[in-house]
Amino acid sequence: MSSNVAAMKTQDVDPSTVTDGFHLLIDALKLNGINTIYNVPGIPITDLGRYAQAQGMRVISFRHEQHAGYAASVAGFLTKKPGVCMTVSAPGFLNGLTAMANATTNCWPMILISGSSEREIVDLAQGDYEEMDQLAMARPFCKAAYRLNYAQDIGIAVARAIRSAVSGRPGGVYLDIPGAMLGEVMDAVEGQRSLVKVIDPAPRARPSREAVARAIDVMKQAERPLIVIGKGAAYDQSDEVIRELVEKSGYPFLPMSMAKGILPDTHPQCAAAARSLVLKESDVVIMMGARINWLLSHGKGKQWGEPGSKKFIQIDIDPEEMDSNVEIAAPLVGDVGSCAQALIEAMEDQGIAPPEAWLEQVNAKATANMEKMSVRLRNNNIPMDYHAALGVLKDIMTDQPDTLLVNEGANTLDLARSIINLSKPRQRIDVGTWGVMGIGMGAAVAAAIETGKRVLAVEGDSAFGFCGMEVETICRYDLPVCIVVFNNNGIYRGDGENWGGGDDPATTVFVKDARYDMMMEAFGGVGAWVKTPDELREAVLKALDSGKPTLVNALIDPAAGKESGNIGNLNPTSVVAQARYPQAKTI
Ligand code: ADP
Ligand code: TZD
Ligand code: MG
Predict the structure, then answer these.
(1) Which of 236, 242, 426, 436 could hold 336 in an S-S bridge, CB 3.0 to 4.6 Å?
(2) Does 86 map to a domain?
(3) pTM, rounded to two decimals
């Protein structure tokens, strides 16, 4: 800070010759193409939000920081630019921290900017307003954490934050903003000169020639090959190259949930409906921007067939991901686009084509499973079950491919994921790697803001409860979001009983037939309460047609769901518990 400007009084200030921390931060973000902030106002960042809006940024204010944070992280996933979440100190910061940790876990770029209290007081633990050593708290949950002590460092700090968030494996970055720094005054010309534009923030990373040759050798041996496509591939935005690799190789492919739509789910090589078969029987698996984590049983166990029966080729930007769970026969370190392109070129004239018998086996299984499913989707059971409701939403999404899908819950998630076909990249946003509940409304807001498209959010009633207050945010910004709450009166099922026989309700049930639709009406949106597939169809079509914030409260049979959806096997149990509670066997 130059001392002559530090002593200035308001009446002496010519805003064209001086600037301050507030404006430098806004200028630094804008210079780097970041034009939206997801935030909750309060000391010391209330004015920062106002000034950002005054300077032409889009500032979306939420009711709770966790949802602002989820929105920022989803913006990062959709755009490949870090989404920015802004919070107040200690409690606001901690509310946002969950979302930043979730972003890091999902490899989504996000910057959490939090105001912080007086450093001198915090460091001596003298009890400042909202005192907390935020920088230290943030570190374990992000890729990098920086504190901005002087206005002159804003340019470089924002540049570092952006590069840390998007280069290599993307993730969360924390930027600590002591309130006093925002008010620091600086010469305008010096200030402008201190800003940094990040050139090529996430450089393409090409795999080495040897690594590509090794992968081709493995592909040549394949008799039952498979490509697993993950959300790292969706993030990479190399949609055309991925498609070319899949089609040139002729390999069946399995999309992980947020990779659905890079190639349409109806593509003839899509093996989603034969998932168990391809995981078990394949002999060579190309992992493309997908980790071999719990979502894929760590690449081991019954699901993967005979031990030692597979060879893995793994494409990932992060070399440390290799061999994390199983041996990787051919690691390809680089971005998905460059690795896929290198494989396409090296495949030429190598005679790579899967045996017909394998493709026929996969197709036969997929067709049989789809036929079985299509009967269930057309049922007219009263009360309505998941399948009937999802049959309706599947048809609507097929007819309206420009609509984005947000999805969370347990049964609501697992069934919607497999039933609703998608045909566009980055069309689906869900609970991600952690299976986190409550991401839905933040994701819906970000999807609408970042793409300008319609959003259909299919939410379990429990999942919705984690973020339901953000319907006010959706109404306030008049976003074209249609929320469908699958209301089965509870977590997994709505028919649980108190095993002690007391008056308290079971731990997993909610108020019966709750009117979530009225929550939306409370803020001026449209509510609908539906009990049949026909009513559901009419309400959702009307919502997507009008673009008005809408909540469709869909009554679902409380007995239709399974404990924990498809992952009930992850619940711990014991022989003692089984002996003590005979009911445990029946859920
Ligand atoms: P899914 O949940 O869909 O299986 P994961 O989140 O487990 O996907 O895996 C995503 C992987 O993609 C991570 O290991 C991450 O390092 C990687 N990744 C992220 N961006 C890129 C990119 N641009 N190119 C290659 N790999 C990437
Ligand atoms: N808290 C958080 C943040 N994430 C979680 N995943 C959970 C708790 C545990 N949990 C699940 O894993 S799914 C779920 C919870 C509470 C809700 C399932 O109920 P739902 O869906 O109503 O959303 P269904 O259709 O009733 O199964
Ligand atoms: Mg439920």
Answers:
(1) 236
(2) yes
(3) 0.97
Task: Look up residue 552 and give its amino acid.
Answer: V
pLDDT digit string, tens, across residues 191-221: 999 999 999 999 999 999 999 999 999 999 9
Same domain, 337 and 235: yes
Pick the residue whose CA is nearest to atom 5 on ligand 1. Answer: 290
Residue 372 lies in a domain: no
Q: Which ligand does the CA of 335 lie closest to?
A: 1
End-to-end CA distance of the chain: 66
Enumerate residues 6+ apart whose C-beta is below 8 A from 278.
226, 252, 254, 271, 362
C-beta separation of 428 from 15 below 8 A: no
Q: Which of 315, 341, 364 is the last residue of a domain?
A: 364
In this structure, what token pair is assigned to residue 212?
Answer: 């590509």
Give 91-134 pLDDT, tens digit per residue. Answer: 999 999 999 999 999 999 999 999 999 889 999 999 999 999 99
CATH code of 348's domain = 3.40.50.1220
* Secondary element (H or E) of residue 465: helix 461-465
pLDDT in tens, 345-379: 999 999 999 999 999 999 999 999 999 999 999 99
pLDDT one-digit tens code per residue, 225-277? 999 999 999 999 999 999 999 999 999 999 999 999 999 999 999 999 999 99
Query: Can you tell me the distance from the alpha carbon of 235 to that of 170, in angstroms, rounded to the nearest whole number?
Result: 10
Cβ of 491 closer than 6 Å to ligand 2, yes or no, is yes
pLDDT in tens, 67-77: 999 999 999 99
Q: Are 554 and 416 in contact (CB under 8 A)?
A: no
- Between the CA of 493 and the centroid of ligand 1 the distance, in Å, is 33
Q: Please give the structure tokens belonging to residue 292.
A: 């071999």
Measuring from atom 19 of ligand 2, which residue has the nearest CA? 491
Give DSSP secondary structure letters for 350-374: S-----HHHHHHHHHHHHHHHHHHH
Token pair listed for 293: 């984590």
List the domain range (segments joined by +) for residue 54: 2-193
461 lines ligand 2 (CB under 6 A): yes
